[in-house]
Amino acid sequence: MKINVITCADHVSPESVKGNTAVVVDTLRATSVIITAISHGAKSVVPMTSVEEALETKKKLENVVLGGERKARLIDGFDLSNSPKEYTASAVAEKNVVLTTTNGTKAIARSSSAARIFIGALRNARAVAEAAVAEERDAVIVNAGTGGEFSMDDFITAGAIIAHMLELKPAELTDVAKTALIIYETHRDLRSYIQEAHHYGVLEELGLSEDLDFCLQESVEDIVPEYKNGIIKQHF
Ligand code: MLT
């Protein structure tokens, strides 16, 4: 098994993920939100890359909750922002969550030619590592990044997932995957590294420190959502 890392959504091409198990990561905050929504009983999460698409999709589905962000804030007319703490069981159980975010939902859409697509974050790092190893094929950790740029929060999350994969099975790592692993292994106080990330500062400025605390918890969820045929459900 070979493991690679792609450092932002804009760098994903069909060839770069084809035949691989892709694990899409947007720790602050899109994939943390998706894991929380599925964990709290959402029927599905439907990732959209534009607000217009999300509003169109709402017309075609039942029991819809509109969620997401632009500039890290609630979108006009939407029910929920991209704060994981809003995705409670009372808000999303049995609902179809139509979600659009700036980077995370784009990274998911761009990974669609992979053999299988799992949703990863720090919160389910060990569980998603187990699912990726069980697939017995090459894997690629797709970082959403921020605005087409590398993001430190997603990169150290890739390192965490790779560390858990190596606990289960030896693998060949590309240089960027090795670097993510080294960053993770040399920053066990994750916040000491992630607090330097641009987007961490943006969320802190907006007073969203509870979201930061929530998204930085490691391997506290056994949920492994899977993206298939345009929707995300729990992977079994
Ligand atoms: C994104 O997809 O860009 C992020 O999840 C944005 C955020 O939650 O602030």
Automatic annotation (TrEMBL):
Cofactor(s) this protein cannot do without: Mg(2+)
Keywords attached to this entry: Hydrolase, Magnesium
Any Pfam family matching the protein: 2-ph_phosp
Catalytic activities: (2R)-O-phospho-3-sulfolactate + H2O = (2R)-3-sulfolactate + phosphate
Enzyme Commission number(s) of this protein: 3.1.3.71
Lineage: superkingdom: Bacteria
InterPro entries cross-referenced by the UniProt entry: ComB-like, ComB-like_sf
A GO MF label: sulfopyruvate decarboxylase activity
Top-rank EC class of the record's enzyme: hydrolase
Similarity-based family: Belongs to the ComB family.
Protein name as annotated: Probable 2-phosphosulfolactate phosphatase
The species this protein was found in: Proteiniclasticum sediminis
